[in-house]
């Protein structure tokens, strides 16, 4: 093989634009290259793998006496041409066996070979790299690829999108904004970040998810549009970014082209799963992929998902309590998959399988929801929240599937209740009942769930109870009869008729015992213990103790919190406030993701501290309980039996403290976030305040965490503004800031983020 004169400096191109950020990635890549002979930079299309590789190569050039050599493979259509392309970069003339010739040439060289865009010829690249590394001890390879090469000894560095700014950040611009400003100044001399445009630039970068290619293409538009106009036109993210500079290859001209190319590089099975998995806005696990995405008979879902992870189409996260891996797509990638799914004509079948999957999931939750996996189930459903919404909305849009939606929503009745999603659950149940008028068992179950939640919110429920009673008799169903008695008893109790409510609850308890439904036996015991508490009936303590024993027998940790509350309030009634407070502290310390339970616990703690004369603490606990009730969606605390005890404690505290001190303490606590309420209740010290902000997870302020909770419940900006007495513009700004701080791109992802937070109810 003939060789032309050696160019020891290599062939790296000169940088035409500035390199922005990536300090951590640069350091990590150089560290890996010092220890490994093959380093592959992986990541989604347009994320900046090539530019990072070129900068790394330039920085380490002096360590390679025989140079740093770049081989661009993007335009190589035939995999068999890979060895020839690499040989050409070194100035080698062709032979019949280019791979052997390359191996011979590189045998005694100390150089860095940069292979750019390997994904579409990955197998050939892997074969060649393995051969070259085997014969040349001085060779290092730095590759960029949307998926791994699977060569022995390969070290991976996943390249993420650039960090995007947090709204209100007064420091210097973060990397995404710096990139936009740099590229905008290149096409529009004189452009600079100023107070008037900084917020709009930040929002552009967030809308584009920090993807460098997308940001660069958007920045070019500043040549003819103002920054605000660019922002306005980003509603169609893929449609706007269609610039066509002659010097850039067609596949790199737009974000859509980058994603389209990634799609073309996938196998047919991977393309199919990519499109089908777009129906999961909240992400998915392998079980869901196997059920919903229906890979071909000769392809396993695991292999296909693995391929998409390797190609950076999917990113892997830890699942619920680490039990299952969880997979997500960037929103832009998911939107692309959705468009492909619609074009393929397969969407109806995929949606039908997805509805079946979540109907089965909801039934399993109902069957297993009172047992050792109770807390895990609640966390899983919170992670699945966005997917559940998508399924319910889709089914309710099709009258033929409305019954399936009603079945799912009814099975999840205590998820809506315990998850602080009562209004949302009511909304789905109401729509399902309106569309499913036939007198079926599914409708009866929906009526029970709707009545239960309506009573919790003080909404009208008489017609629901009347029809539920009719259907219970029509179907001669003991569980339905007990459900009617339970809901009627609860409504009667909450309106102040304690004796009538207790009688109905006794009837419900007997029916549930006959039906053998442990969960509903437990729930009714709690309600009965509460009714008897307000009646001053000592038999309520026995009901509470039985409920606690039931949770221990079934290892139901979530329900245990309610049982501890029930036992505690009877201890308080028996003039044992300290013992009661200890039980309540134990329940709060469980840090269960149930806002309604937390409100009950904090409220009862106020009663205990009132008996101990700690009146300022009473004021704050009552204020904290009010804050949690607001987030829970339930209104039990506003109903007469509970409200009466609260008012007695407040009156004593006002008398001891004076109105001004009481009101100040109460008002301060109503601004607490959930984490602050828990810490205060447990005497863990005051929440950390910095410039009026609290140390909430994700860097959210108290107000932002509160709004995030309401967003997760499905409330619109208008509804949130009305609930919190804020302007619509203020709420819109808070929601935008929340998405930025959490690194999210859509409102539907907020619930999933909250579900993954450790500690207090979230």
TrEMBL record:
Where's the HTH luxR-type domain? 693-758
Please name the InterPro entries in this protein's record: HTH_77, NB-ARC, P-loop_NTPase, Sig_transdc_resp-reg_C-effctor, TPR-like_helical_dom_sf, Tscrpt_reg_LuxR_C, WH-like_DNA-bd_sf
Q: Name one Pfam family in it.
A: HTH_77
Q: Which branch of life, at top level?
A: Bacteria
This protein is called LuxR C-terminal-related transcriptional regulator
Its ancestry begins with: Bacteria, Bacillati, Actinomycetota, Actinomycetes, Pseudonocardiales
């Amino acid at each position: 093989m003939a060789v032309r004169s050696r160019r020891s400096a290599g062939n790296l191109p000169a940088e035409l634009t500035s390199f922005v950020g990536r300090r951590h990635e640069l350091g990590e890549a150089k560290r890996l290259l010092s220890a490994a002979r093959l380093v592959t930079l992986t990541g989604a299309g347009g994320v900046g793998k090539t530019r990072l590789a070129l900068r790394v190569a330039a920085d380490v050039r002096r360590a390679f006496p025989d140079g740093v050599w770049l081989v661009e493979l993007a335009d190589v259509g035939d995999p068999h041409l890979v060895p020839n392309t690499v040989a050409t970069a070194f100035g080698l003339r062709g032979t019949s066996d280019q791979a052997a010739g390359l191996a011979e040439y590189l045998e005694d060289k100390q150089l860095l070979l940069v292979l750019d865009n390997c994904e579409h010829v990955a197998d050939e690249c892997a074969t060649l790299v393995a051969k070259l590394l085997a014969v040349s001890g001085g060779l290092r390879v730095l590759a960029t690829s949307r998926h791994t090469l699977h060569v022995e000894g390969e070290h991976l560095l996943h390249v993420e999108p650039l960090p995007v700014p947090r709204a209100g950040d007064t420091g210097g611009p973060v990397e995404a904004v710096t990139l936009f400003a740099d590229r905008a100044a290149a096409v529009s001399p004189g452009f600079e970040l100023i107070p008037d445009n900084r917020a709009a630039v930040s929002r552009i970068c967030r809308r584009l998810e920090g993807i460098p290619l997308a940001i660069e293409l958007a920045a070019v538009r500043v040549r003819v549009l103002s920054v605000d106009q660019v922002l306005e036109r980003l509603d169609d993210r893929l449609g706007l970014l269609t610039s066509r500079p002659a010097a850039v290859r067609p596949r790199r001209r737009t974000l859509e082209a980058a994603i389209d190319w990634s799609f073309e590089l996938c196998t047919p099975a991977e393309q199919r799963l990519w499109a089908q998995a777009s129906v999961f806005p909240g992400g998915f696990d392998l079980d869901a992929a196997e059920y919903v995405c229906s890979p071909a008979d000769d392809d396993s879902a695991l292999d296909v998902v693995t391929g998409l992870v390797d190609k950076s189409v999917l990113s892997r996260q830890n699942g619920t309590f680490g039990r299952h891996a969880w997979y997500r797509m960037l929103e832009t990638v998911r939107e692309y998959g959705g468009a492909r799914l619609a074009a393929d004509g397969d969407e109806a079948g995929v949606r039908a399988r997805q509805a079946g999957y979540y109907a089965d999931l909801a039934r399993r939750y109902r069957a297993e929801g009172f047992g050792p996996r109770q807390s895990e189930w609640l966390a899983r459903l919170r992670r699945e929240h966005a997917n559940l919404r998508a399924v319910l909305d889709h089914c309710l849009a099709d009258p033929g599937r409305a019954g399936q939606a009603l079945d799912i929503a009814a099975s999840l009745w205590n998820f809506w209740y315990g998850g602080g999603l009562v209004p949302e659950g009511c909304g789905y149940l109401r729509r399902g009942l309106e569309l499913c008028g036939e007198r079926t068992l599914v409708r009866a179950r929906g009526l029970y769930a709707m009545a239960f939640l309506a009573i919790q919110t003080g909404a009208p429920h008489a017609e629901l109870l009347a029809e539920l009673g009719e259907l219970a008799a029509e179907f001669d169903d003991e569980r339905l009869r007990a459900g009617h008695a339970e809901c009627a008893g609860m409504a009667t109790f909450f309106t102040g008729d304690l004796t009538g409510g207790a009688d109905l609850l006794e009837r419900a308890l007997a029916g549930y015992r006959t039906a053998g439904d442990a969960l509903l036996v437990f729930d009714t015991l709690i309600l009965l213990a509460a009714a008897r508490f307000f009646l001053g009936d000592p038999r309520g303590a026995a009901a509470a103790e039985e409920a606690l024993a039931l949770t221990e027998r079934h290892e139901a940790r979530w329900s245990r919190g309610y049982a501890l509350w029930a036992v505690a309030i009877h201890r308080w009634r028996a003039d044992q406030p300290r013992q009661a407070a200890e039980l309540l502290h134990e329940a709060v310390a469980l840090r269960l993701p149930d806002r309604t339970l937390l409100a009950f616990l904090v409220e009862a703690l106020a009663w205990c501290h009132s008996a101990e004369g700690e009146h300022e603490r009473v004021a704050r606990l009552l204020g904290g309980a009010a804050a949690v009730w607001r987030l829970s969606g339930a209104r039990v605390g506003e109903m007469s039996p509970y409200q009466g005890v609260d008012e007695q404690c407040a009156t004593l505290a006002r008398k001891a403290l004076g109105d001004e001190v009481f009101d100040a303490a109460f008002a301060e606590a109503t601004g607490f976030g959930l984490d602050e309420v828990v810490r205060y209740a447990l005497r863990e010290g005051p929440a950390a305040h910095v410039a009026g902000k609290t140390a909430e997870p994700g860097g959210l302020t108290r107000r932002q965490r509160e709004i995030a909770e309401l967003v997760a419940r499905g409330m619109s900006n208008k509804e949130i503004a009305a609930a919190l007495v804020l302007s619509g513009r203020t709420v819109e700004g808070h929601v935008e800031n929340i998405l930025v701080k959490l690194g999210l791109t859509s409102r539907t992802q907020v619930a999933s983020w909250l579900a993954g937070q450790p500690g207090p109810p979230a």
